[in-house]
């Protein structure tokens, strides 16, 4: 199985309180396993506040809904041994 790498990483974002913000990470292969999103070193799950999805098989997205001051911090995307932060 080929190693999945990050083709295009996360970009920093500045948003206003109450807005949504989306982060995207493009990986080299479809159906990547061992993928994880974190905010401030806390693993995120797909729920009403965090929308985690995959577009076109290779573009992993995280949307944080109605952000607050508590959401300030580092967002991390990890696939296998590779990470990207914003």
TrEMBL record:
Source organism, top-level taxon: Eukaryota
Keyword Phosphoprotein in record: yes
Alphabetized Gene3D superfamilies for the sequence: Immunoglobulins
SUPFAM superfamilies, sorted: Immunoglobulin
Domain annotation Ig-like: ranges: 2-86
Pfam family, one: I-set
GO terms for cellular component: cytoplasm
Principal subcellular localization: cytoplasm
CDD domains in alphabetical order: Ig
UniProt keyword terms in alphabetical order: Cytoplasm, Disulfide bond, Phosphoprotein
Annotated localization: Cytoplasm
Identification of the protein by name: OBSCN protein
UniProt organism field: Sylvietta virens
């Amino acid at each position: 199985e080929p190693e999945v790498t990050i083709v295009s990483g996360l970009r920093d974002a500045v948003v206003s309180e109450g807005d949504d913000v989306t982060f995207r990470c493009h990986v080299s292969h479809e159906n990547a396993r061992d993928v994880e999103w974190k905010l401030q070193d806390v693993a995120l799950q797909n729920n009403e506040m965090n929308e985690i999805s995959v577009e076109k098989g290779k573009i992993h997205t995280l949307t944080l809904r109605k952000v607050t001051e508590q959401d300030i911090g580092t967002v991390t995307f990890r696939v296998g041994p590779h990470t990207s932060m914003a």
